[in-house]
TrEMBL record:
Residues 8-249 form the ABC transporter domain. It holds the Pfam family ABC_tran. The keyword Hydrolase does not apply. Keywords: ATP-binding, Nucleotide-binding. PANTHER family: CARBOHYDRATE TRANSPORT ATP-BINDING PROTEIN MG119-RELATED, SUGAR ABC TRANSPORTER ATP-BINDING PROTEIN. The keyword ATP-binding applies. GO terms for molecular function: ATP binding; ATP hydrolysis activity. Signal peptide: none annotated. This is ABC transporter ATP-binding protein. InterPro entries: AAA+_ATPase (IPR003593), ABC_carbohydrate_import_ATPase (IPR050107), ABC_transporter-like_ATP-bd (IPR003439), ABC_transporter-like_CS (IPR017871), P-loop_NTPase (IPR027417).
Amino acid sequence: MSELVPAIEARGISKYFGAVTALESVNLRVMPGEVLGVVGDNGAGKSTLMKVLSGLHPPSKGELLVGGQPVHFGSPRDARNRGIEMVYQDLALAGNLRIDENIFLGREQVRRLLGIFPVVNHKANARHAQEHLDKLKIHVKSVQQRVEELSGGQRQAVAIARATAFDARVVIMDEPTAALAIKEVRKVLDLIKDLKTHGISVILISHRMDDIFYVCDRVMALFHGRNLAEAPLAETDRNEVIGWIMGNKSRADVPQGMDLN
């Protein structure tokens, strides 16, 4: 029965910024181990919704549930404590720090010096970082490499590793392949697919139809801050999804030959 309970669910979420309505009665649900694609034009409300789900913005109206239980996030830390992690487009990694230091930044394992003074246990952090990278099939020369020495795809993989290192239920990703070379895109998408095998749910914001149709199980579209449409990937196609982005529910309304990458 637990598999029938969404990992995270939003019911009737609205968000107002003064007189501006960013979201109006938006619903979203993601099942355990599911990859949900979220599409929409600029200003559709995608980023605002993700910031509500990750605790950055409190909703003006509506309800959030994690594992079927109502939750109230006062900050991103509250969301992380319930297993909701966000990987932003700029990654927010510290380039001058090592891979293992980035993965455990702010959550380092410590040991007691002379049984009293807490100091960072670098050996334990490095060991556990390597074990976590191995579990996710992320290959780097050494966990002691500085992040600034990595390629774009490797940095994205480290950001995903950091997000999943502490019992994540749901990982939200904002355009994870937008700045990557073509050869690195597939590696990141395969990593997202691999998260499913660990029971981790993923919410993927992307403008790239190739990404959506390669990795997602289901896709939903927002338009002007509202739900427009959603469907399993097996029951839709690129033209229909592109039509949703444009605000059309009918496949016939999509100009022939139009595609987004």
